[in-house]
Amino acid sequence: MPLKAAIASMSLGRAWVHNLPEKLDQAAAYGMAGVEIFYEDLEYLAKAQSGGQLTVDNQLAAARIIRNLCDERHLTIIGLQPFLFYEGLVDRKEHEAKIEQLKVWFQLVKILGTDVIQIPTNFLQEGITGDVDTIVKDMIEVADMGLQEKPIIKFAYENLAWGTFIDTWEAVWDIVTEVDRPNFGMCLDTFNIAGRVWADPSSPSGKTPNADADLQASIAAMIKTVDVNKIFYVQVVDAERMQTPLGESHPFHVDGQPSRMSWSRNARLFAFEEARGAYLPTLEVAKAFTAPQPKGLGFDGWVSMELFSRTMAEKDPSVPREHARRAAESWEKLSKELGCAGK
Q1: What is the pLDDT of residues 298-340, one digit of tens each?
Q2: Which tens digit of pLDDT belongs to each residue from 158-188?
């Protein structure tokens, strides 16, 4: 399929401030063809059902409502995310609880009409192991479960730039290779790639010591190594350069939270928003995803604008519209740069 624009539901406003129908209205009005459903939106909708509790029945009811809302607006649901804190749990009772939760998610994605569950790399600061054999075993377990479903459910593993043990696309690719299942692949994100190898919000320069050379080496290795068939979708966003290093005295700092996570939660931007402070080499990374071989991976498919920002929690009712407008402007510029047209 050609490149098509999507947006993550929470990127249009946090669920406790902005209701999902309005967010989906704006996504459709500004030309998004697809939407990633952020579990937070489903959770809040579920709690609004009978009894006000997060029961399985209420979650399933919420999924049916979301599916109808998206169908009415001609929005394709491209995935459900994030299935948090799964791999490498030391307490195997906690692991079994996550497996039971996953069984509910299987029901949810079938109702939503999607076949993709996104798993971000674990960023718990304790209670997890970085042992590769354990992580691979955990991921084989979910992949094999997904293979038994009809239709088959796929898993998109994504490196978070602040992951405790796995924080690069290279480490994710190693896990994908070891798992070796057709339904276990990757979500590649310009922010989480450039934000790890090239940028450092705690540095006065905003960059890592060998940023440009390291990024070039990483991109070259990606193009040479990654099987494009293992990329289930990509995310393209940028981020603000911090005016002062994101250390303990910075207003975004949270005790016990890595600086890149604090940066991500507060200061992502849509691509090409340099006027708002965007500074990552987003286009360079995006071209590595989509350019034909040998200049890129040759990815075709969904491109999601997954934004996290302090602005998502602002109470101004114009937030969903404004974020949808900004996403549409970003997509228009990106599609021209990447040589594709329309949605």
Answers
A1: 999 999 999 999 999 999 999 999 999 999 999 999 999 998 7
A2: 999 999 999 999 999 999 999 999 999 999 9
β-strand partners of 120? 158
C-beta atoms surrounding 245 within 10 Å: 16
Are the beta carbons of 201 and 263 closer than 8 angstroms?
yes
pTM for the full model?
0.96
Pair 343, 303: CB distance under 8 Å: no
* Buried b or exposed e, range 149-170, using 16+ CB within 10 angstroms: beeebbbbbbbbbbbbbbbbbb
CA distances from 65 to 24, 60, 114, 336 (A): 12, 9, 14, 35
Quick one: tokens of 259?
């600086």
The C-alpha atoms of residue 131 and residue 115 are separated, in whole angstroms, by 29
The interaxial angle of helices 319-338 and 282-290, nearest 10 deg, is 60
Chain length of the chain: 343
The angle subtended at Cα 34 by Cα 31 and Cα 40, nearest 5°, is 115
